[in-house]
Amino acid sequence: MADVTIWNEYRHEREDDEIAAVYPDGIHATIADALTDGDGRDEAPDHSIRTATLDDPEHGLPADVLEETDVLLWWGHEAHDEVSGAVVDRVQERVLEGMGLIVLHSGHYSKVFKRLMGTTCSLQYREDGGTERLWVVDPGHPIADGLDESIELPRTEMYGEPFDVPEPDRLVFTSWFEGGEVFRSGCCYRRGSGRIFYFRPGHEEYPIYEDDDVRRVLRNAVDWATPTEGAPRTFGERD
Amino acid sequence: MADVTIWNEYRHEREDDEIAAVYPDGIHATIADALTDGDGRDEAPDHSIRTATLDDPEHGLPADVLEETDVLLWWGHEAHDEVSGAVVDRVQERVLEGMGLIVLHSGHYSKVFKRLMGTTCSLQYREDGGTERLWVVDPGHPIADGLDESIELPRTEMYGEPFDVPEPDRLVFTSWFEGGEVFRSGCCYRRGSGRIFYFRPGHEEYPIYEDDDVRRVLRNAVDWATPTEGAPRTFGERD
Amino acid sequence: MADVTIWNEYRHEREDDEIAAVYPDGIHATIADALTDGDGRDEAPDHSIRTATLDDPEHGLPADVLEETDVLLWWGHEAHDEVSGAVVDRVQERVLEGMGLIVLHSGHYSKVFKRLMGTTCSLQYREDGGTERLWVVDPGHPIADGLDESIELPRTEMYGEPFDVPEPDRLVFTSWFEGGEVFRSGCCYRRGSGRIFYFRPGHEEYPIYEDDDVRRVLRNAVDWATPTEGAPRTFGERD
Amino acid sequence: MADVTIWNEYRHEREDDEIAAVYPDGIHATIADALTDGDGRDEAPDHSIRTATLDDPEHGLPADVLEETDVLLWWGHEAHDEVSGAVVDRVQERVLEGMGLIVLHSGHYSKVFKRLMGTTCSLQYREDGGTERLWVVDPGHPIADGLDESIELPRTEMYGEPFDVPEPDRLVFTSWFEGGEVFRSGCCYRRGSGRIFYFRPGHEEYPIYEDDDVRRVLRNAVDWATPTEGAPRTFGERD
């Protein structure tokens, strides 16, 4: 069982009534609920869950919180620029030490993800409320545990290729969109000792994080991203 | 400029009038034409082209032919089982030595491709004549040179995920299908010193290899798969 | 806790007195001991262990044994050719379904490993009893859990590059040899739903599997290779 | 033939007489010589070579120079911190657009390389003047063209694992060091449309860039890193 911190920008939900209606307590609250949900199939995980938002002091991510975090989830969209460089440095450092990181939806443009990828993380998009079908292209992956061959989301924002990220270590999902596009929507990376998973679903205008399959993926991803012990990383001058 | 051998099963075209109408001289002849086609944009490549078919002696691939081949293209479908183990051994050996291999469409189930991948190379399919759009997911790749952001084929057979192959070294194309599926339709591998490219388009009932973009991909892939010199592979007991 | 089958050729130990002195009950027995060893640091794992050898009926690997096996370890050397194609087919099939496979030392030349890799799996070697130091190049990997920065083995057979295998998905160890060579000595692959780990140490003339660090790696590798559930692999014609 | 820019910090050679004796015109001049050297085997390449140093205005890398550069080589050591963020931004942007980047020796700690990798790029080191042998682990790679199975450098600084970089797309060289360490000394990456090669040899106190094999690697790497055309990268809102 992991110490999980869910970071949410938490602006849309306070600024826009329609979004507030979808996520009345904030996207982070819905994700927290998803991560501790048993879903009738598996037992509810016994994670220790913390939430943090942009407008908290130090964005809710002071050094001691990150130090105690096994897995950090990141949802941001309209205020990426307001995230301080000091917090980005700290998150990067903790990921390289082993903290898992799950980047959600428009978090592809977060400073944290761009820092760890080294690329623009650009993509194509269209807000059209069309259908997305996420195909499991790697059925043996633990993040796909308990899923069917695909996940269907009736109304989403479209993200299309090319997605300017390094070739994933492992591609778990590829999305089909009603409007004619595809997208690598579940991408695994390791940087330093940390596991990173980018997962596309999550537009703020639709109740994506209420979907049972999406919630299962989030739980699986937390399990996958939880650090293992490994060997010491000894750098510096050798005698 | 490369020594290219195009291998075609060459049964459908001789057995079925409708297919014969699409490829009157065999799929291999159309591909040979594509590889030496200048297309008004680049000069016509000056490859030395040879063709070989299943019913030739030794399937047209005796040792000396393979020895002189820089890049082998492979199209097969209904008679994979008739390809002799000796020829499969020889092709594998030459690929590991550096010969490029381009596996087309239903060649995913060829003995040669399965031997080199180590997996079943299974997939889902449906012969529905629907539209396929191949998205370039790796715009910096030489196999995508001169393409637009996607290739559209109005009538194709559908191939769907999961595609049981090792994670590609580099994924160049991902297909969107009108019927709701996706497929990793351009996959690069290296095995030994040889470069391998799997390229999905090519159903025998549609004139896929007449498409200008598909033809450009074939030419690009031959250039990419042509062996470089490298260093010697010295195996055995060391003094 | 996993159902583990340890496969050993079990010829050297019965044919050669000096080797019998190192592994009196066979290499498989020593590995079995390693896998259930608590080592004073972690609790002893509660695996269900089975052993199988070349001269058992069906090499000890009938369909029902493989069906019940989560992780198969493979040690072979002088009699690779005697392993039947039927057993190789079955092992490959089970790996693609999800069974973990740990290939040890001279098992690089086994039919099973060559089938799954698609390459010759050749390398250089010298039986000189020199020192090997295995460096952890991926300290965040679970197979390195609990190790120091390197493992030192005072007397080993040398294996040198080039090692003709596909580029590993993840390289965990690289060996330094006293005589001047290097070798990628811990290589992770996935094929189908199965996890494969090649681990170099294990020459039959030295008590390599008595080494505490090597034993820890074997235990870690069994944990890593144990199948997860994943999603169903649905192949065939779609409606 | 490519437009090549060689960037050198160019401080050691002006500050230290012993280093000046090794590289009297600066490391960049010796590398420029290597890149246009025919070596009796191949014809001398016809690259257009430019050099740039830290103390030039804008470090010698104004926008128009980078715009015209196909491949940039980077050597830096003691003054990484003095490289301006604006130049780092510009180099990153150009690499993602397709410019090749070859990072040499202590350049592993440059801002440019760390930016593109997303990791600390840390390693172990020891200045002991011991022997290094670089083994070709990927004999089929164009960067290994014309080499023997290994390159031996009699006196070098040691770099040891773990090297905190993302798993390379392709590992070309692994070094053996007399003192007992190993290092992944030739690592290929792609970021955006750009090819990146990290090559370890090059300590300023030894005439490493006078070595014929090292010079051959530099020439091969420039050829490998030269951009290909690719497809357009179209980002933004789709209609």
Automatic annotation (TrEMBL), chains A, B, C, D:
Residues making up the signal peptide according to the UniProt record: none
| Region listing for Disordered, in residue ranges | 36-60
Enumerate the InterPro entries for this protein.
Class_I_gatase-like, ThuA-like, Trehalose_catabolism_ThuA_prok
**Which stretches make up the ThuA-like domain?**
4-225
- Give the highest taxon in the source lineage: Archaea
Q: Which Pfam families match?
A: ThuA
Q: Basic and acidic residues composition bias: which ranges?
A: 38-49
The name on file for this protein is ThuA domain-containing protein
Q: Which organism is the protein's source?
A: Haloterrigena gelatinilytica
